[in-house]
Amino acid sequence: MKKILVAIILTLGFIGVRAQELRVATFNIRMKTDADTGNLWDDRKSAVTGLIKFHEFEIFGVQEAFREQIDDMKGFLPEFSYVGVGRDDGAKKGEHSAIFFNTKRFKAIKNGTFWLSATDTEQPNKGWDAALPRICTWGVFQDLENGKQFIFMNTHFDHVGIEARRESAKLILNKATEFAKGLPLILTGDFNIDENNDAYFTLAKSGVVKDIYDLATIVYEPNSSFNAWGKRIEQRGRIDHIFITKPFKVHKYGILTDTYMGKFPSDHFPVIGVLEW
User: Is the pLDDT of residue 274 over 70?
Assistant: First the structure.
């Protein structure tokens, strides 16, 4: 009888620990375009969502996601919902930096999207020296397993504007404080900057957020996070990042290099982090 009680206590303890884990990710899924001959969205959408399901993403940010792609993903991921709008009109048009979340684990308390701009963060426009309008989508979520709340932000920095990337980093940190002062923060995105870039240091050395890569107990970094459909895989180089604040701790970091039939689900590899409350 004593052995049985010990076994029960150990099992309950294990379940309690597992309940504190949080699987987050960032994934540039590549826009739907007829120019991607051999890598069309209709051919790879099941691979994208299959990867998400197999690796058990619980909350994640996507980039380059157009409304039709988001609708397709929701069809493959019925347990998930999302927040976010298109950058071209603040509704359905253009790229979304949406946040998907498993509704069995999380509840969205409030959310919004702002434009990365020095002049107008509320309306579609290009900021600083950016080539395109850029946005950040955010949400305050409640973890239904422990009742705790946190803010999750997801973005896609400009691929051209050097000033835009640096100033966007500063703006996001300011907005995080404005929207959810005192709450833990998770920030994901395709930042179009690697770990040696000044704009990256604006975030990583801010004293506010830290790169989960630097905090993880286990790091799986087989290659770069950008692959250009397999044509530009480098030994190292991370342009897709996940940043966090306390009290989150990081158990695992990984660049997931899954393929299907010798093809890539996207021209970026997703990045996953297993966090602990």
Answer: yes
